[in-house]
Amino acid sequence: MLYENFALIESIGLDLLFASVFFFIGMAIKDVLKQGNVPIFGQRIVWLVLFLGCAGFITKGLIQLSWEGAGIG
User: Which pTM does this prediction carry?
Assistant: First the structure.
């Protein structure tokens, strides 16, 4: 049974790995912005870029899921 579901387990594990990497990147950026006394405008730009990276990753996953469900990819 484990071998039959190995691709699903691998996919979920990889998604969790990327989510944890994004979390740790966010924590590191928060610390750097706090210690560097970065102005509010700069902080918002940094967080926007980080959010867009996460949103792109999530969008890619949803597109991949829909294409696989439709039999395209």
Answer: 0.65
